[in-house]
Amino acid sequence: MGENCGKLRGAVSEVVKKMITVDVFGGLGNQMFQYALGRHLSIRNKSPLILRPVDVGAFSKRPYALGCFKLSPEARVVSGAQRTGLRERLRSLLGRGEVFVREKGFSFDSRILELKGDVHLHGYWQSEKYFKDIRETILEDFTPIRPLRGRNQKVLDEIGSSSSISVHVRRGDYVIDPQTNKFHGICGPEYYKKAVEIIAKKVKSPVFYFFSDDIDWVKNNLRTKFKNVYVDWNQGDQSFVDMQLMSHCRHHILANSSFSWWGAWLNRNPHKIVVAPERWFQERSLDTRDLIPEGWLKI
After folding, report:
1. Neighbours of 66 (CB within 10 A)
2. Are residues 32 and 170 in the same domain?
3. DSSP SS3 for 32
């Protein structure tokens, strides 16, 4: 009996020691960054990945959104209550805790990838340096589970047969909510005009595909002298389809948004041109040097 109990304690200890937990919050793009780091760390540690949706306040009152992707079979989504109950039962048996790591800033911290054991991560982790080494795995995990149909399939076919450039315009709470606006700011018409000029000098016969959470404003304020296509039908819980379409465009103009960041990063074209805003946040104190991948143009 004592020997069997010892084996049980050893087996449970090993499971707890190797559990990687990631707090998931914010919009879809934020959650993708959080997943990607957790996935990398779980691979390095050969451990299961726990995704824990949490509510962290005004900036991040969003539901869990990663269900539109294939993800890894090693990843498990649990509520805070489920995870707490599991932890309490295991800790009462083992008498041990976990390493809780809260992100201290937006710059890449290489020490995170060296973490071992029972790790709980809380942060945004917005740098490809946290998962660049497993790019193919992340691309596979972020494969949409549903094929495109109807107008989206038609636009996808057009994107594939043209010199397509995605243009993402993030407004929404960036404009409506004063606190969010003060923190993030927005990319205005002058930014997009300059970005279009840069792309037009490098790409023959460009076609600009506009995506936005305020597409009516875009139609009234952003237009190029080339062909313009306004994708205005993917709303609500179907908004992720815009990212899917963006990822198939040949080149990209980003907003200061993790949603458009991923639309560009998921693009497999090795020769893609990506234009991104130099100033990602209105809040100047934030260090964003590791946010934009090498090779992307910042203006």
Report:
1. 20
2. no
3. helix
What Cα–Cα distance (Å) separates residue 95 from each residue in 4, 14, 48, 170? 19, 13, 21, 47
Residue 45, domain extent: 2-141
Tokens 């008498």 map to which residue?
A: 95
294 and 154 assigned to the same domain: yes
- pLDDT per residue as tens digits for the range 64-103: 999 999 999 999 999 755 545 445 444 443 444 689 999 9
Model confidence over 160-216: pLDDT tens digits? 999 999 999 987 555 445 454 444 557 899 999 999 999 999 999 999 999 999 999
b/e 249-285 (16+ beta carbons within 10 angstroms → b): bbbbbbbbbbbbbbbbbbbeeeebbbbbbeebeeeee
CATH number at residue 175: 3.40.50
**Residue 47, burial from CB neighbour count under 10 angstroms (0-12, 13-18, 19+):** buried
| 275/196 same-domain check | yes
Compute the residue count for the chain: 299
Is the distance from CB of 3 to CB of 102 less than 8 angstroms?
Answer: no
How many whole angstroms separate alpha carbon 80 and alpha carbon 52? 6
Q: Kindly report the pTM of this predicted structure.
A: 0.88
How many domains, in total, are found in the chain?
2
18, containing H or E segment: none
